Amino acid sequence: MLIENSRGSEWRKYDLHMHSTASDGRATARELVNEAVNKGIAVIALTDHHTVDALDEAKAYGKEKGITVISGIEFRTEYGQKSVHMIGLFPDYFKGQKLDQSALNDLILAPLDLSRTQIIMKGKENHPEYSNEKAYKEGLLRVQVDFKNAADLIHKYGGIVTVHAGGKANSFDVEMRHEGTGVTNVDLADSLGTVKEELLREYIDVCEVRKSGEVNFYLKEWNKPCIAASDAHSVREVARNFCWIKGEPTFDGIKQIIYEPESRVKIQEDEPEEKPDYLVIDKIVINHGDFGEQEILFNQGLNTIIGGRSSGKSILLGCIAKLCGTKQGVKANKEGYDEYIAKISQSSKLYWRDGKTNVDRKIDYFPQGYIIEMASKNKKIKRLVEDILCEDAKTNEDLSEIREKNATEGMQIHQYFFEYQKKQYELDTLKDKLNAMGDRDGVIQEIKKIEGRIEELKKTIKDGLSDEETEEYKIIQKNLSQLKAKNQQVEVSLPQVACLKRINLFNDIGVSFDDITDEDIRNRMQSEYVQLEKEVQTKWSKMLEAVYLEYAAVRERNEQLIHTVEESELYKKAIRVYTENRKLAEENKKLEKEKEKLASINVLQEKKLGTINDINNIKERVIEKHLEFYQTQYDFCNCHCKEIGDVRIEPKVVFQYSDFIRQVSSYFDGRSAKNSEVLNYQYKKEGYEEFVKNLLDKMLTDKYIFKGNVSRDKAIEDILSSNPFEIEYDISYQGDELRQMSEGKTAFVILKMLLDFSKNEYPILIDQPEDDLDNRAIFEELVKYLRAKKLNRQIILVTHNPNVVVGADAEEIIVANQEGIGNSNPENIKFAYKCGALENSFKTGNSEILLSCGIREHVCELLEGGNKAFRLREKKYQLI
Fold it and tell me: Is the pTM higher than 0.70?
C-alpha cells in the first residue's frame, strides 16, 4: 500500500482517571496498562496526585501494548470542605517542546510549589518522624493548589482541565454545596453559586461525573462535555467506569469533545451509533496504473472527500458507486469518465463490513449535478416524490393497493391482459422491496452475530430457567416461529383467493348465437349457455369460499395456539427471566427485528419466484374497468398529503390529455369528421363517464372511421385498457409552488426532499451537494441534515465547502491529490488519497504533498485557502 490510512474518528473506550504506585495507587503503571488492554480500553490517562514520576514508563509501555496513555496530573485545590479535585491532561508536545516527565515537573509542578522537596516538607508537618519516602507519599495527598492558577497553567501548555462534578466524591458540587444535610438536598442548578459559575465559564473544560444522569445539566446549561472514569487505585478497579469518545486515540482526539460535547462523548455500556455490518462500506482497494495499489478505509459515519480541481474526488466516489452496483453515470465535464471508472472498477474491490466483496447492494448515489438536473425534469421529480411517499408503510401499501385495484378492474374486460400486467408489476414491486430490505445473507450473518452475543449473555443470568425449562422454551419458541410464519403466508394468500372471486370464467359469446338462424335452436342454446354459466360460476364461488374459510380457520386456530403459548406460565417466566437483563432484552429486540426482516425477505423471495413462474405462463393481457381508474386514485389523493417543515407535497389526479390524443390518433382516421369529437376531446370531470360510454358504443357500432390497417377490436382493447389518469404532485415551499420557482430554488427544495423526507438506512453517496446552494442554506440545512443522518446512515460525499467538513463534524476526511508540479504523489502515481480525522495534525518536510502534513492542515489549505487566508478573513470579519 502506498499510504497508510485510518478510518478517522471512531468510537473507543476511554478511562481518563487512574492512579499508580507513584502516588496513592496499589498497582504499577504497567499493571494498569495491562488491565486496560484486557478490558478493551483504547486510551487511558495516568493521573497521579501531584506527581508525574510514572508517566514516561507508562507511555512507553502503552505504546508497546498498543494503547494510548495520556499524561495527567490530579490536583487538590483550595475550594470546598475537603478539597475540590481537578485534573490536568496534557498533549505529548506543545509548540515543539516534548512534555515528558521532566518538562511537566519544570513547567507545571514547580511553578505550583509542588517540587519533591516541598511535598516532603508538607508530609512531615504532622509526622516529622516519617522517612522522606513516606513523607512524600503523605504530602502528595495533603498539598493544595490554587484552582485558577493551576487551570491557567494547564491551559498555557495546551492542556485540558477536568473537574470532579455532580455526585462524584471531591466534586465541586459536593464540596461547595449550599447548607444542608446531604448531597441530594439541592439540585445541581441551585447548588452552583457565583464561584462555581465562574469556574465553569472560564476554567473548566470537561466535567467528570459519577453517572450518566448528571450529563444533561452540564451539557445543556454550560455546553460542557462529561466523561465517566474509574478513578482506579487498583487493577480490579480499572474501567469500572468508562466513557466512549469518538476521535483518534490521541490527546487531540480527546480535545474534540470540547468542540462537540454532545456528539463526541457518551457514557453508556454499548458502543454508540453502531450500524449493522451489511449497511456499512468498509473499504475500497484500488489496483490500477493511475493509482498503484491503494487501500482507502471508510468510517461508518460521515466521510468527506476533499481536494483540488481534478484531484480524483468524483472518480473515487464513482468507483464506490459502481462497485455497489449502481447504473448511474458520473456527471462531469469530461467525456469518458464513465468508461474510465468502469476500467478502474474492474481491478478494484469494495469490501462491506460483513465481509462481502463487490456485491450489488442498495445505496443512494447523487452524482455531481444530479440535483440541478432533476430540477429540470418533471418525471424525475415525480419519481422522487413517490419514493418519498412510499417510505411511509401505509402510503406505500395504499399506493400498491391502487395499482392492484386498477389492474383487478381491468381483468373484467380482458382477463389475460390484466394478469400479465399485474404479475409484471408485482415482480417489479417485489424486486424494489427486496432491494430496499437489504441483502439476505447479510441479515442472516447479522442474526448469527446477535445470537452469539445472546448466548454469551444468557450464561450471565444466574437466577433463570432450569436446563429442562430452557429446552422446553426453545421448543416453544420454535413452534411459535413456525405458527407465525404460517400465518404470515396465509395473510399474503387470502387476499389473492378473494381476488379470484372477481374472475369471470365465461366470455360473452352473444354475437356467435346471432349466426344461428333457427330461432328455437338459438334460444335453446342461449338458455343452456346461461344456465351452464350460472352453475359453473356458482360452483367456482363456493369452492373459493370454502378454501377461504378453511384457511381463515387455520389462521384463527394458529392465533389461538399462539395466544395459549404466550399466556403459559413457562413462557411468561422465560420472558421475565430474559428481560431482567437489560442487555439481553436489547439484543433480543435487535434479533427480533432482524428475524422479522428475514421472514419478510423469505416471503417476498417465495412470492417473487411464484410471480416469475406466472409471467412465463401468461400469454395475453387483461385490463380493468375503465371508469374506476379515476375514483381509486382520487380517494388516495384525498388522504395522502405530506408536509415536513416548509415543504408540502399534495397529490392530485390528472387526465393525461397528450397521451390520450396520441393513442386515439394512432387508431382513428384524422380526415373523417365523424372522429372529431374524439380527436378534439377536451376533458371535463363531470362529463367523462358519458364520454366513455358514448365512445365505447360508437366504436362497437362502427360509428367512427379507423385507419386502414387498424383492427377495431384491438383499438377498443387498447384504448379502454389504458389508464388515462395519473397521480401527479403539487409541491410547495413556504407557500410558493415548485413550478413557479427558479431552477436554483427548485434544486434547493428537491435537496430538502431528498434529505429531510428519507427514512432509508443504506449508505448515501453525494458529489458536491453544495453546488446549488448558498452558504447559509449549506450551514442551516445541509449541515443539519448530515449531523442527523450520519447517526443512522453511512455518508460518503465530495465537497469543497468547509462548513460541510467542519460544521457537520466529519468523522473521516479523505484528501485527494493529482500528481503535478508541487503536488507530487508517492511513486509518482497520478491519483493518491490520504484518510484520517480532522484532529490529525502535524507538519513534516516530506516532499510528497499528502505526507507533508496532517488532515487538519490539508483541510485548512484546500477549503480555507490556507492559514494566512483564513486569518485575514477573520480579521476582516472582525471576529478576532
Answer: no
